[in-house]
C-alpha cells in the first residue's frame, strides 16, 4: 500500500481517500490546511497514479487492506477517516465492518445503490474505449466531470495514462455495483454525509439513505455543487465544514 503522510505523527490521525480517477495530489490543498492540527494520511488507491501497477480488485478488498493497515499502524483506532466517491464507498465499507475503528467519518458523494445492467454495459464499453483515456481531449472532458481544478489537469492526465485496463474495469464495476451493508447502522462513528445539490438523483438518494441508517450522522447538501465540487474546488469550505463538525460532535 502506497501512502503519503504529514510529518507530525503525534497529532490525531485523519485518513483521507481520493476519488476514482484521481490520486493523493487532489487532496493537497486540504492537507495543507489540516496538517497543523492533524497527522494526515492519504493512501493511493490501487490502480491510480503511483499505484497504477497494483491492480484494483474491489471496494471490499481495498477496505479490508486499509483496516489491516489501521490495525498495524494505529492499534485499530484513528481520529477520522474520509473519502470522496469510490473513496467514500471504501469508508462506508470500513465503518460497516468495524464499528469502532474511527471517532469520525466523512462520506462525500458515495453511491450505495447498484446501477442496473452495470456489468453488461461497462465491460465491453471500457474495453472498446480504453484507448480514449490516452487522448488529451477526452481527459479534459473527464477532468471537468470529476471537478478536477485546472491547475491539476496535467498531473491528472499524466497519471490517467498509468491505469491498466483491468483496474479501470474493476474500479468502474465495483463503483457501480456497490451495495451498502446495513450493518453500518451499528457504527459508533459520528458521520458527516456530504452531497452536492447538483448531483444525480441516485447520489442524493444514496446520501439520504446513509443519513437515515446512521443514527449519529449529519447530512450536508453543498449548494450549487456537483460531484466532489466542495472538496476539490473549494477546499477551504470543505476544511471549515469538517473541522466544525469535529468541534460540534465532541
From TrEMBL:
SUPFAM superfamilies with a match to the protein in the record:
alpha/beta-Hydrolases
Molecular function in Gene Ontology:
hydrolase activity
Could you name the Gene Ontology cellular component terms for this entry? membrane
User: One short Pfam family name for this protein?
Assistant: Abhydrolase_6
**Sequence ranges assigned to domain AB hydrolase-1 in this UniProt record:** 14-239
The entry's keywords:
Hydrolase
> What is the top-level taxon of the source organism?
Bacteria
Q: Which PANTHER family match?
A: HYDROLASE, PUTATIVE (AFU_ORTHOLOGUE AFUA_2G14860)-RELATED, MONOACYLGLYCEROL LIPASE
This protein is called Alpha/beta hydrolase
